[in-house]
Design a protein that fits this description.
disordered N terminus
């Protein structure tokens, strides 16, 4: 009974701490959106085409490509960020840089929003709300959550080398990390499907 009473407040504190960490990563993501939106107002079409492979900013292509191509493009863009986060979580120093990835993910979305608004006005805002925002919102949350897990895993790996007595099993820890990242990969696929379906439903309205 004593063990339950002691461990319960500890779990509550850990969950509260994890929630604050996730909120910090979300704030970093939002900061990236703001910075990207400001930069997007001064961007040109050539710049957007160069960044299309990472940020999915070529809207002429998005409105005309097939279902499979649209899904692969959207899913591949998220996988690039997730792969970088995954590798950062496997290194001792990666946790210090995990926050950079949500910033760039948010920057890419903000860049798209700023560019669409500056060039197409409320027509571009409508495209963003109907087609880009739902999938991008889910993908952004996944990237923020994955970055938090990468930072936690990196910190735990560091603990294996600092602590004289290690109570956790490294294999179990890495197995849990792999499962979480596979879940994040699945959510990225859901985001890609959502992006593709919305594009099929509403892209005919917008002709850029």
């Amino acid at each position: 009974m004593k063990k339950i009473i002691v461990s319960s407040p500890l779990k509550v504190r850990m969950r509260f701490r994890d929630s604050w960490i996730l909120m910090i990563f979300c704030m970093v993501l939002f900061t990236g959106i703001v910075c990207g939106a400001i930069s997007g107002r001064n961007a040109d079409s050539d710049m957007m085409k160069k960044l299309d492979f990472i940020f999915q900013t070529n809207y002429h292509v998005r409105c005309s490509q097939g279902i499979l191509s649209a899904f692969v493009s959207s899913f591949g863009s998220s996988v690039i960020f997730l792969a970088v986060i995954f590798l950062l979580g496997l290194s001792l120093w990666g946790g210090f840089f995990a926050w950079v990835i949500p910033f760039f993910k948010g920057y890419g979305y903000g860049l798209s929003v700023g560019y669409l608004y500056s060039v197409y006005g409320f027509y571009g805002v409508g495209y963003n709300l109907l087609i880009i925002l739902p999938g991008a919102f889910l993908s952004a949350l996944v990237i923020a959550g994955a970055a938090r897990e990468a930072m936690r895993n990196s910190a735990k790996l560091t603990g294996f080398f600092i602590k004289s007595e290690v109570k956790d099993d490294l294999h179990i820890q890495m197995g849990q990390y792999m499962k979480i990242m596979l879940l994040m990969l699945g959510l990225c696929a859901v985001s890609g499907i959502l992006d593709t379906v919305l594009g099929m439903c509403f892209s005919w309205i917008f002709k850029f």
